[in-house]
Specification:
With 293 residues, the protein is an alpha/beta fold. It has nine helices and 14 strands. The longest helix is centred in the middle third of the chain and has 18 residues. Bound molecules: fe (ii) ion.
C-alpha cells in the first residue's frame, strides 16, 4: 500500500526569524513545513503569517508533542487543537515522530526512543489508528534520532518503522539525517536502512545537519547538511525521485538565503544533477557509540 502525498517539490521549515523577510518578497520555495504546536490554540501574529503564506504555497504541519509512543492516554485536548488547526490551514499532510515524549503527565520535551519490541509495535499501531480516526486522515511518522537502545530489542529500526506504517496504514516521514546519525551512533549500515524502507510509504523527506561530538553525532539542526547525508539522499532519490523534501534548520538559524541555498542543492541532487564527492557505499561501517539500557 502506498501513502498518497503529492510531490510538492522542495521546501523549508517556516521559522519566525524569517517571517519579515519572507513577507517582503515572493515566496522563494515550493512549500513550507510549520511546527504544529507553535500555532495550535493561538490567534496571534504567527498564525496570521502562517495563513498568509498558506494562500501562496502548500503548508504541511509537523508536530513534536503527539506522544504516539506514550503510555498515558492520548490527549483529547491536543487532538482537538490539532484538528482545529488542520481546519484552518488545510495542510497537505500532518506528521509527528515515532517516539515517546513523557509519562504520568510529565512532558520531557524530548523525542525519546521506543523499545523496538512486538509489544510496543502493537501499542503504537493502536494509537496511530486512534489518532487517524480522530483527525479523519492519515498521518506520517518520522524516524527520530536516538542515542540509546534497549537490551532485548527484537526488531531493527527500519523494520519497526516499516511495520508501523504497514500495520497502522500511515505514512513515513523519512529523516535521512536521522538515519545517518543513528547509523553512526548504533553502528549499522544506513543503506541497509534505506533499502529496507518501502519508498511508496514515504510521503516526505527531511534533510538536516548534525553536530560531531567525538564519540557520537548529535542531531542539532544547527549546521548545513553533511556530505554523507547528501550521498544517502542521492541514493534514495535514485530509487524514488518523487518525494517532497524539506531542509530542517532549527538552531543557529542562518540567513534565509543560506537556507535556500541548501534547498537548491537538494533540488539539484534529486534531479541527479549534483555530483556527489564520495560514494554512498563507502560511508559505512561506522563505530557504535550508543548506550544500551
Ligand atoms: Fe526531521
Amino acid at each position: 500500500m502506498a501513502i498518497h502525498c503529492a510531490n510538492l517539490g522542495h521546501g523549508i521549515g517556516l521559522r519566525a526569524a524569517h517571517f519579515k523577510e519572507l513577507a517582503e518578497r515572493p515566496v522563494p520555495c515550493q512549500w513550507f513545513e510549520a511546527t504544529s504546536e507553535n500555532y495550535m490554540g493561538t490567534r496571534g501574529e504567527a498564525l496570521a503569517h502562517l495563513l498568509k503564506f498558506r494562500r501562496e504555497v502548500p503548508i504541511v504541519l509537523h508536530g513534536v508533542a503527539l506522544g504516539i509512543g506514550n503510555t498515558d492516554p492520548l490527549s483529547r485536548r491536543y487532538l482537538h487543537d490539532l484538528k482545529a488547526l488542520i481546519g484552518q490551514v488545510q495542510p497537505a499532510w500532518v506528521s509527528d515522530h515515532l517516539a515517546w515524549t513523557g509519562v504520568n503527565g510529565e512532558n520531557s520535551h524530548d523525542l525519546l526512543p521506543l523499545p523496538r519490541t512486538q509489544e510496543s509495535l502493537r501499542h503504537v499501531c493502536r494509537r496511530v489508528a486512534r489518532v487517524q480516526d480522530s483527525l479523519g486522515r492519515q498521518i506520517l511518522l518520522e524516524n527520530p534520532s536516538t542515542y540509546a537502545e534497549f537490551s532485548g530489542e527484537q526488531i531493527p529500526e527500519w523494520e519497526f518503522l516499516s511495520a508501523v506504517a504497514d500495520r497502522a496504514d500511515c505514512g513515513i516521514l523519512l529523516d535521512i539525517n536521522n538515519v545517518y546519525v543513528n547509523a553512526y551512533n548504533h553502528g549499522f549500515d544506513p543503506l541497509t536502512y534505506l533499502n529496507g524502507i518501502d519508498p511508496l510509504r514515504v510521503g516526505q523527506i527531511h534533510l538536516a545537519g548534525y553536530t560531531e561530538c567525538g564519540t557520537h553525532l548529535l542531531d542539532t539542526h544547527a549546521h548545513p547538511v553533511s556530505q554523507p547525508v547528501w550521498d544517502l539522499y542521492q541514493s534514495f532519490s535514485a530509487r524514488h525521485p518523487e518525494v517532497s523534501t524539506l531542509i530542517e534548520w532549527d538552531d543557529k538559524i542562518p540567513p534565509l538565503d543560506s537556507l535556500l541555498a541548501q534547498m537548491h542543492r537538494a533540488q539539484a541532487v534529486q534531479r541527479g544533477a549534483w555530483r556527489c564527492v564520495s560514494r554512498a557505499s563507502a560511508i559505512m561501517p561506522c563505530p557504535a557509540a550508543s548506550v544500551h539500557l
